[in-house]
Each structure stands twice: as structure tokens, then as C-alpha cells.
Design brief:
ATP binding; nine-stranded mixed beta sheet; alpha/beta; UDP-N-acetylmuramoyl-L-alanine:D-glutamate ligase; Protein-Tyrosine Phosphatase, Chain A; UDP-N-AcMur_synth; binds pyridoxal-5'-phosphate; 5 domains; Ala_racemase_N; 43 strands; isomerase
Length: about 800
């Protein structure tokens, strides 16, 4: 992109307040944290319920950004940069993208529907890339913000676009249509997703069809419900399996793991084999095939390419690597747009100073190689990558463009050199096109543990955080409790994400938890709830902030702090208002005030208390008495010491049930991890952790035969039994066995039979289609941790924190 500010001002109808409007813009940014922001960036300050881009403008100016599209000019930034003032920054971004789109004439495929959009897009890219220079939406960038950003990636060399559009409410699609303006439409499967934003299925279909208001052709599955809504003026190219009047008639047959389609089009009938058998994949593949037919591909070409379709992996995964490395696995795609996204993610998740990028040849950038690798090199420099390892024939030719770069012609050569590359204490982004098989590199670098993993969905954590933020008054701060290894979900990775979301404080139980976060580079202030006297020195050394809850503790801390000649060291005062666990009581306050009056060694950062019954309205009167006492005691401390600390008393259920007591900050815990004890609220949270394993062995036993220790299960008929490598040493309670609990295999419940063993359990899979190696879900969306806890007579906290550290945590982001 090379547009000047002077070009852009009228397009977005901005009021220009600045000096230099001939400057050339080469990147658009909405993320203040991206290292890719530069002097040629135009930054759109977007605003949302949990977010205001205007806040970061001053910081961005310091980092060299000079051009901003804003709703207003922040006071602290006036005259320090150039501003394009508009009424609505998101609309301005969309207008700009729509204009930019209008500069290009080539065909653009627009995909919408409830399911399958991203898979169809990725597969079309694979099927058509031998013949086109394709630009496509990176990952699943299909929203009101994602679509404009995707469109802005187009350049002069592209000759086919594939973009997906996703909506969750009425009136969104018209905006996306104006930006994408597809010439070829694909309506993928319409399911029940996002129903809540629409009054009826009809309304949802009508809204989706708006994407196709000016297409030359619409590809769809011919079906009465949908066709009733399609404008008859739009030319369609339809397929169907039970209606011969469709343009293409298709019959399907399963052959083992494959599906054979008999495709009748015009006068011909020909077979196509696809390497999937599930309904959804088959339908998505057919949509892709329709595009190939529409483009006039020969049957043989369609046959060869369709046979090579593969499972699409869209997630960026964070994994533990060998020698204390951290891996970011994006080994399924390699294009310029998704490289930019992955590098941003690397910056969010980096856990070490050293950052390594393992990169394959890049395809379909539309640029010639010289230009392309120069741009890649720029990107790598702005992201401060420590070393680049290029793998591929083409990237090898441009080795000299990378400072600290080494290259290999292929993965085999890399493997030979592996031992000399000395991977250690670094964050490694592994980004390669599918053909390069970088999964081999991931497997070499990955820490080897057994097959049971706890998968943590980082998007769900962000969602839950924003959900609780939206319940707070704008000025209320947020402390997030990451004690006990983030409630069992993972310490560092979650802390890093929270830092990225700019939470104000983290809370841990013990000093060592805080030290490990600080040592890994977390810079958010951390409060230690239960600092032992023996850890005071370490607390000071690592800039942790102790919670002080007794006169004895205070004196001990002051003694060390004075020896070290500290000034205004931050501490937190806990008062006991009824929980009777830790804290100063009313009768201690006088002593506390005497000691702290005029004291310069420490500074009271906050005053807190903790509620015993915020989750149970039955004890409403007690909860309110705690809040009242807190108000009284904290006010007394503030008045007598003449201080204005942060005050906080609410945990997760407090946020829900006692919003009037938010004070200056709240302490979010279990809610972040997707758990609420309010049924309505639970529906709005997203599941964070999924505990998974695989089937080790399957056997069939006869009536009268038993399973496991003590013969506690005896079959009353021929029964198929699966053994799964997870047991009570991993945190699965023994009482979850013997028919109480179940695991889920291929979407079906399999009862746990016999007693749970230390490292294994057995389940009845008589009615389930599965094999050795099949995936097993222990908990997640079903069964939920909440349900397990209820059945076992405990609370979700205990189940979550009880998952043993030998279970590997894998973090991913969609
Ligand atoms: C654990 C804890 C919290 C968070 O509680 P949740 O119920 O998980 O939200 C808040 N404050 C204190 C003092 C805690 O110990």
C-alpha cells in the first residue's frame, strides 16, 4: 500500500489537524502493542466496551508513530503528531478498506455461513494456488475489524482474493459486503451458531445473504429453506444430493476413511475421492469443488487436487520445548499476512529475551522474491528477532537479507545440523507452509511427555476477562489471582496474557510463585497474599509486594526493609472483616496506625479484605456486614494515616453479587478460568481448560468377566473396554470411577468402569465408534468441571488445582 495522507483524508471524511500530509502510509495498525508500528503507520484508535485506543496514543508517539485516526485528540497528545479526526474510527477504517478494495478489479470470492468458512477458505487457497496469486483473510479474520484489515493486505500482484465474513448480529453484513464486494459468493453450512443475535433462522439467513447482493454467481447447497430467501435476480450455481434439478448432482459413498463422490455436471458423471468421511468436511470439500467447476477446471485436475485435501489447523499453539525453550507452533501456513500476526503473538507470549524464528519459503505474497524477502527482513528487524532460521530453496537464496540468519535447503538438512543449533532458553516461532512438514521440527523441539494434556484456550481467557471487566465501573482496577499455578491452568502463559490485557495487578499465594513470574519477565505488580517471614528478603529483591496481616509480620518486614534502607516500599494491608483467616482486626488498628504514622520505609498501596460468603445469597446479611465493617475500618486507616490507597474486597462471585462494593479494584479468580456459580453467568463464560487423553488399548470382554482392581465392574453382556492413560495421580479422583463419571469419545459418553487406577482408567465403549489412539476428553465443555465437582461433592477449585503437574499444559489461540 502506498497512499499519502492527502489521499486518505477525503476517503474517510476526516478533519485533518497536522503538518505533513504528503507522507506515505505503508501499514495500518489498530494494536498499540505491535512492534510493527513505525513512522509510516497510520494508527486507527478503535474504541469498544473494554478498550479505548486513544489511551495509547501518547506512548505510540514516543515510539515514533506520527499519524492517527481518532474520534478526538487526547489532551496529552495535541500538537505532538498528526491527526485525522472522524466521528467513528471503526467506520473510518471500514470506509478506507472499501475504498482500497475498489482499486482492484480481480475476482474475489466471499464466503459466509455458520460453519466451515475458514476451512473452505484454506482449502480453496490450496486448490487454486498453483494457478493464482491469492490474497486471503489470515486465520479467521472475518469480523467488522478483521475484514478491513484483511482487505488492506491486497497488492498489485494479486489476481484472486478469498475472504470470509462472519457476523453475530443483524445489520453487520451490509458493512462487510461493501468492504469485500465479492464477485463470487459461497454460502457454507448454516447451523445454529450465533442464533442469539437473530430473532429467527430466516432472519439469520437473510442477513448472511446480504454478502452476495452484487455477486456474479452464488455457490450454494440447494435447499428449500435457504433458496426461499435468495433474490431470484442473483445467478446461482447449486449442488444437491437429493434434488436432481440442482446444477450439480452429487451422490456420496463412504469407503473406509475416504468418501467417494459421484458428480454429475452437464452431461458428465465422474468420481472424486476426498480423504474425509465426516459430513461437515465432505460438505466443505464440495463447496470447494464447485468453485473449481465454475472456473472450468478439468475433471482430472479436480480429482488430483481434491484427493490431497488435509485437516486444517488454524490455531497458534504454545508448547513447552526442550532445554527450557517455549515453542509457538504455527507449522501449517506461511504467507506474509499470517507471518505478521504470528510475530505479534510471539511478542505477546515471549518468555525469554531470545526470540528465534524458524521460517519456510513464503508463498503467494504477490510480490517478487527480492521485494518479498526485503519486506520479511524489515518485519523481522522491527520485531527484534534474535535469530532467523530459514528453511527452503528460495529463502536460502536470500540468506544475506537476514542479520543473524542461517538457512537450510530443507528439513532434512536442518535435522542434520540440529545438535549444533543449541536451542536453549528462547522462544521459538515455527512458521512454515504445509508442504515443508515443520511438524517434524516441532516434534524435535517439543518436550516429551505422555499423551494426556490439559489444553488451555487463551481466547476463552481473554473473553472471560473482558466479560468481568464489562461489569466494572470504568475506573475500577482489576487484580487477577494467578495463585496455585493459575488455578492449575498455567502460571506464566496466563500471566503474560493478562499483562498483555493490561490488568493492574496479579495476586499469588506465596513468594516463590511471584518470583518465578518476575524471573520470567512479568512486569505487572504482584501482590503476595501469604508472605512468610523467611521470604521477605526475596520479596524485596524481586520487587514483589507483600500483603501484611499482623503486627508481628509488619514489624518483621519493617526491620528488614529498614536494614536495606528502603523508601516507600509498597505493601498491602489486609483486614479481617469476618472471614477469620488472615488480617488485622479492629482491636489491632490503633497499634497499626501508631507504627505506620509518618513511616517512610513502606507505603500502603492498598487496603483489602476478603469475603466469606459472596457466592451465597443465603448469607447476604453477613456479606453486607463484612462490607460495612470494611468501609468503616479502611476509612479509619485512611483518615488517620492521611493516605489514599486502592481499596478492594470483591472476588469473582463478589463482582457478580455485590457490584456496589467494587471500590477501586476487584480480585478476579475462578471466573477468569470460565467458572461461575451463577447459572446465567456460566452461560456467558467460555470454557478454558480441556483435559484430553487418548485410548491406549481396546479389548472386548465377555459376560461375567471383570475390569480392574477388586473386580468392581463385572460385565453383564459382551462389553468393549478402552484403557486411558490418566489416573488419580493426575488428579482424577478415584471416586469418579465405578460408574459415577464418564469420559467423552467422539462426542459420546463412555462410563468409567471399575476403579480409577493411579495412572489409568477404563471406560465402556461398547456403543462408541472409536479405535486405539482415538481422542478422549476427560473434562472441558462436557463434562464440565462444575458438573464433576457437584457429582463428587467438592468445588471446581479443588478439581482444577488438583490436576497434577505431570500433565502437560498446551496453550492455544484461535
Ligand atoms: C483466591 C482469592 C481470590 C479470588 O477468589 P475467586 O473466588 O477465585 O474469584 C480473591 N481474594 C483472595 C484474598 C483470594 O485468596
Amino acid at each position: 500500500m502506498t497512499l499519502t495522507i492527502r489521499n486518505i483524508v477525503p476517503i474517510i471524511k476526516a478533519n485533518w489537524i497536522g503538518q505533513n500530509d504528503v507522507a506515505v502510509i505503508d501499514t495500518i495498525s489498530i494494536d498499540s502493542r505491535s512492534l510493527q508500528n513505525s513512522e509510516n503507520t497510520l494508527f486507527f484508535a478503535l474504541t469498544g466496551p473494554n478498550h479505548d485506543g486513544h489511551i495509547y496514543i501518547e506512548e505510540l508517539i514516543r515510539k515514533g508513530v506520527q499519524y492517527f485516526v481518532v474520534n478526538y485528540i487526547p489532551e496529552n497528545a495535541a500538537e505532538k503528531a498528526n491527526f485525522l479526526v472522524v466521528e467513528n474510527t471503526l467506520e473510518a477504517l471500514q470506509k478506507f478498506a472499501a475504498y482500497y478494495r475498489s482499486l482492484f478489479e480481480f475476482p474475489i470470492i466471499g464466503i459466509t455461513g455458520s460453519n466451515g468458512k475458514t476451512i473452505i477458505k484454506e482449502w480453496l487457497n490450496f486448490l487454486l494456488s498453483p494457478d493464482f496469486n491469492i490474497i486471503r483473510s489470515p486465520k479467521s479474520y472475518n469480523s467488522q475489524v478483521g475484514v478491513p484489515l484483511s482487505i488492506l493486505g491486497i497488492n498489485e500482484k494479486h489476481n484472486l482474493g478469498i475472504f470470509e465474513a462472519g457476523i453475530s448480529m443483524t445489520n453487520e453484513m451490509e458493512k462487510l459486503q461493501k468492504i469485500i464486494r465479492p464477485t463470487i459468493g459461497i454460502l457454507s453450512n448454516i447451523g445454529s451458531a450465533h442464533d442469539e443475535g437473530f430473532s429467527s433462522v430466516g432472519e439469520k439467513i437473510k442477513e448472511k445473504l446480504k454478502l452476495f447482493s452484487s455477486v456474479n454467481v452464488l455457490i450454494l447447497n440447494k435447499n428449500k429453506t435457504i433458496c426461499a430467501f435468495v433474490n431470484p435476480k442473483i445467478k446461482t450455481f447449486s449442488w444437491c444430493s437429493d434434488d436432481k434439478s440442482a446444477d450439480v448432482y452429487i451422490t456420496k459413498k463412504n469407503i473406509g476413511e475416504l468418501t467417494e463422490l459421484q458428480v454429475t455436471y452437464r452431461e458428465d458423471t465422474f468420481p472424486i475421492t476426498i480423504p474425509f468421511q465426516d459430513q461437515a468436511s465432505v460438505e466443505n470439500a464440495i463447496h470447494c469443488m464447485m468453485v473449481m467447476l465454475y472456473f472450468g477446471y478439468k475433471h482430472e485436475v479436480i480429482q488430483t487436487r481434491m484427493a490431497q485435501l488435509y485437516p486444517v489447523e488454524m490455531r497458534l499453539k504454545v508448547k513447552n520445548g526442550i532445554y527450557n525453550c517455549t515453542l509457538i507452533d504455527d507449522s501449517y501456513s506461511s504467507d506474509f499476512q499470517s507471518l505478521k500476526i504470528a510475530l505479534d503473538f510471539l511478542e505477546h507470549q515471549k518468555q525469554h529475551k531470545k526470540k528465534t524464528l524458524i521460517l519456510s519459503d513464503i508463498f503467494q505474497s504477490g510480490l517478487n522474491n527480492e521485494e518479498l524477502y526485503s519486506q520479511v527482513s524489515q518485519l523481522i528487524i522491527s520485531n527484534k528477532i534474535t535469530r532467523v532460521i530459514g528453511i527452503g530453496e528460495t529463502i536460502s537464496q536470500y540468506k544475506n537479507k537476514f542479520i543473524n540468519g542461517i538457512t537450510f535447503k530443507n528439513v532434512a538438512e536442518f535435522t542434520k545440523a540440529f545438535d549444533n543449533l543449541n536451542f536453549e532458553n528462547e522462544t521459538i516461532l515455527i512458521k512454515g507452509a504445509r508442504d515443508f512438514h515443520f511438524e517434524e521440527i516441532v516434534s524435535m523441539l517439543e518436550e516429551k511427555t505422555h499423551e494426556t494434556v490439559l489444553e488451555i484456550n487463551l481466547n476463552a481467557i481473554s473473553h472471560n476477562l473482558n466479560f468481568f471487566k464489562s461489569k466494572l465501573a470504568p475506573k475500577t482496577k482489576m487484580m487477577v489471582m494467578v495463585k496455585a499455578f493459575g488455578y492449575g491452568n498455567g502460571g506464566f502463559e496466563i500471566a503474560k496474557l493478562l499483562e498483555h490485557h493490561k490488568v493492574n495487578y496479579l495476586g499469588v499465594a506465596f513468594a516463590d510463585e511471584g518470583i518465578s513470574l518476575k524471573s520470567a519477565g512479568i512486569t505487572v505488580p504482584i501482590m503476595v497474599m501469604n508472605p512468610e517471614t523467611t521470604s521477605f528478603s526475596a520479596i524485596i529483591q524481586h520487587h514483589l509486594e507483600p500483603e501484611i496481616y499482623s503486627i508481628k509480620g509488619l514489624k518483621a518486614f519493617l526491620k528488614i526493609a529498614e536494614q536495606k534502607k528502603l523508601k516507600h516500599f509498597p505493601i498491602h494491608i489486609k483486614i479481617d472483616t469476618g472471614m477469620h483467616r488472615l488480617g488485622f482486626e479492629e482491636e489491632n488498628l490503633e497499634d497499626l496506625i501508631q507504627i505506620l504514622k509518618g513511616n517512610e520505609t513502606v507505603q500502603i498501596k492498598s487496603i483489602l479484605s476478603h469475603m466469606a460468603t459472596s457466592d451465597d445469597v443465603k448469607h447476604d446479611a453477613f456479606a453486607k456486614s463484612q462490607i460495612a465493617l470494611y468501609e468503616q475500618l479502611s476509612t479509619r486507616l485512611m483518615t488517620e494515616l492521611n493516605i489514599k490507597p486502592i481499596r478492594h474486597i470483591l472476588n469473582t462471585s463478589g463482582i457478580t453479587n455485590y457490584p456496589e462494593a467494587q471500590y477501586d479494584m476487584v480480585r478476579l479468580g475462578i471466573g477468569l478460568y470460565g467458572i461461575s456459580n451463577d447459572a446465567e453467568e456460566q452461560k456467558q463464560l467460555e470454557n478454558v481448560g480441556t483435559l484430553k487423553s487418548v485410548i491406549s488399548q481396546i479389548r472386548t470382554i465377555d459376560e461375567g468377566e471383570s475390569v480392574g482392581y477388586g473386580r468392581r465392574f463385572v460385565a453383564d453382556k459382551t462389553t468393549r473396554i478402552a484403557t486411558i492413560p490418566i489416573g488419580y495421580a493426575d488428579g482424577i479422583r478415584r471416586s469418579w470411577g465405578n460408574g459415577v463419571g464418564y469420559v467423552v469419545i467422539n462426542g459420546k459418553q463412555a462410563k468409567i468402569v471399575g476403579s480409577v487406577c493411579m495412572d489409568m482408567l477404563m471406560a465402556d465403549i461398547t456403543d462408541i465408534d472409536c479405535k486405539e489412539g482415538s481422542n478422549v476428553i476427560i473434562f472441558g465443555e462436557n463434562p464440565t468441571v462444575n458438573y464433576m465437582a457437584q457429582q463428587l461433592g467438592t468445588i471446581p477449585y479443588e478439581i482444577m488445582t488438583g490436576i497434577s503437574q505431570r500433565v502437560k499444559r498446551v496453550f492455544f489461540r484461535e
